[in-house]
Amino acid sequence: PPLVMSELEEVKKLIASYPDFPKEGIEFMDIHPIMYDPAARQTLLDHLINRYQGKVDKVVGLESRGYYFGIPLATALKVPFVPFRKPGKLPGELHLVSYGTEYSQDSLCVQKSAIDENERVVVIDDLLATGGTASAAIQLLEACKAKIVEIHCHIELIELQGVKKLGDTKFYSTFQF
């Protein structure tokens, strides 16, 4: 059954804000209070299931908070879960992309055998800020020749305009700040 928006608004209230973390000038939006609340977690998962049921062949989760909902979503949809990881965490042949975030330089990789050409994927992450990580995920999926159904972040920091780095890729955020 479709969720009532008031249920999601109640979940949104759980998101905590920490100014000047992990460094001065950054406001960290913390999804962990949702993880501590089973009912809130289920509400958010139900929202994802309703949105992606029958529309994806695989769920991609971005290290590491994208795994929180990516794994249970993939299980509920009965499709594989594919982790996008930091370098040095996956064996075998990899696609790798380096990128910048609002406070660091980083890289993301995926095993070349994890996603086949033309597979429909949704990317799950906790937050879209400047768009660096999501943009890197798009590049990795382009290297795999996958079809990106959508980039889904639970939280979007509107002011940072990270969505501009995603080009024509469809993007959805559950909560905007």
Question: How would you describe the overall organization of this protein?
Answer:
- The protein has 177 residues and is α/β, with parallel strands linked by helices.
- The chain contains 5 helices and 9 strands.
- The chain has helices at 5-12, 32-35, 38-52, 66-77, 132-144; strands spanning 16-19, 27-30, 58-62, 81-84, 94-100, 105-111, 120-128, 147-156, 171-176.
- It has a 5-stranded parallel beta sheet, sandwiched between helices. Strands 1-2 form a two-stranded antiparallel sheet. It has a two-stranded antiparallel sheet with strand order 5-6.
- A hairpin with a 7-residue loop joins strand 1 and strand 2 (27-30).
- The longest helix has 15 residues, at 38-52.
The amount of beta strand, in percent, is 25-35%
- Helix fraction, binned, reads 25-40%
Count up the helices: 5
Gyration radius, rounded: 16 Å
Annotation, overall tally of beta strands: 9
Order of helices and strands: HEEHHEHEEEEHEE
Question: End-to-end distance, in Å?
Answer: 27 Å
Low-pLDDT residue intervals, each spanning 5 or more residues: none
Give the integer mean of the pLDDT values. 95
Structural classification: alpha/beta
The rough form would be described as: globular
**Main sheet, how many strands, which sense, barrel?**
5 strands, parallel
Q: Strand order within the widest sheet?
A: 4-3-7-8-9
